[in-house]
Design a protein that fits this description.
The protein is an all-alpha fold and 108 residues long. Helix content is 80%, strand content 0%. It is built from four helices and no strands. It starts with 6 loop residues before the first helix and ends with a helix.
Length: 108
Amino acid sequence: APPPTTTMENRSVVHRRSKTSAATTYALFLVFGIGSWVTINALFTELPYLVTRAPEGWRIAALISLTVQAANLGPLLYMALRRWAKHRYPQITGADFAAYATYAILVL
């Protein structure tokens, strides 16, 4: 029979898993951020074409800029709320996320 594991060995395994999980989360966050950055750059690259073809003209450039800036406020506000009122806002569940996603799609 294998020798019983100690508490220190169990903590080491948990610590390794949390490090791996943190690294995976960071990598996915980085990939998502780079993808968003490339998409926004591509949109601004196509802006001269959009300005000449779209009925909004140069107004579309201002709308895109405002939209990008507003999209940056969401994560910042979420982070501030999580730090400011930890006890007031519990973790978001899957049902909450589905409701928020549905609302976001309906707003569009």
